[in-house]
Amino acid sequence: MQEVRLTPTSYIVLGLLEFAGECTPYGLKQMVAVSVGNFWTLHHAQLYTEPERLAKAGYVTEKRERGGRRRRLYEITATGRKALDDWRSEPTSSLGELREPALLKLFFGADPAAVATAQLPAHRAKLAEYEAIRDGMPENVPRGPRIALEAGILNERGFIEFWEELAG
Amino acid sequence: MQEVRLTPTSYIVLGLLEFAGECTPYGLKQMVAVSVGNFWTLHHAQLYTEPERLAKAGYVTEKRERGGRRRRLYEITATGRKALDDWRSEPTSSLGELREPALLKLFFGADPAAVATAQLPAHRAKLAEYEAIRDGMPENVPRGPRIALEAGILNERGFIEFWEELAG
DNA sequence: CCTATCATGTAATCCGTTACATGATTAT
DNA sequence: ATAATCATGTAACGGATTACATGATAGG
Lengths: 168, 168
Hints:
Two copies of one chain form a homodimer. Chain A is mainly α. Helix content of chain A is 61%, strand content 6%. Chain A is built from seven helices and two strands; from the N terminus they run αααββαααα. The first copy, chain A, has helices at 8-20, 25-34, 46-56, 78-89, 101-107, 112-135, 143-167, and strands at residues 60-64, 72-76. In chain A, a hairpin with a 7-residue loop joins β1 (60-64) and β2 (72-76). The mean pLDDT of chain A is 94.
């Protein structure tokens, strides 16, 4: 049983496994794509390596299918649930970073109107995507994802306003 | 002369060297701290390794002081300027990601009011910091940093509104 | 039947982070 | 003097990204 550091990636995997029960890396990939991936993307390779890492430290168990593709199946353990709970119930005061590539260019002298013109359609598309997800969301989706989606929507609106100002 | 991939970190170093002329890694660190570091942080070690990487590919030159600490001095080359210009004049439509640790917790079921309560002071402090920078900004600061700062301020205001809603 | 795309996985690379270290300056 | 902090740098590690690869399924 090795020690591993738990990163945001770890908690995403744990959170999804808690929600889904037993799951393959590919299944995780599918889930990420339609959920948390909207504001925190992962590469599919991480969904193969991360569960393996977590298994080494006892946060998840690994089984393999008999016959066929012998796909790996992961499931969260009590230890994993505990870690997830601890993380979840420790409210963080740490802030993310803006880290917008477009802002970086602006910062170093790019033409604001040109950047704005390129950014606007992208942000509008993203906003439309979020709104579509929200409007098609089944009743049983829990509050967390709903709120996160709402944050995404507000964020996109903010950026759209900001770039509109600069587009001239 | 090796090939290296140019990352955002690379452009930050190039951009700062363009602005500052000859500079040591420590000097870069100082500049980052009061400028771009407000929305895109770097670890100080990167400011030692990144210029070295860039030197290998001819984007910057490296000299060493005679005597004393023999500190390294970097300077952007014509190749470096070209790369920076190309990057700057290619308006990107790619979007950053929210990647807020607090949102991630919310997504996976943390208590919204508790998270909001922890996030609010942090965002308010950050906003105050930004506003102080803006109000103390000398006249000669170029437009790019000004706009980026403005984006940061709007962003913080957005988050404050969002978390206030949830704090109850 | 052939081809394109989806499903599934491994391996190598590389950048970013963390840890370690030491000389210089300032404060007590 | 001594401690503390600033200035300056190197090295190791590990997670994220990229590249590579192959079997299954569906469409034409």
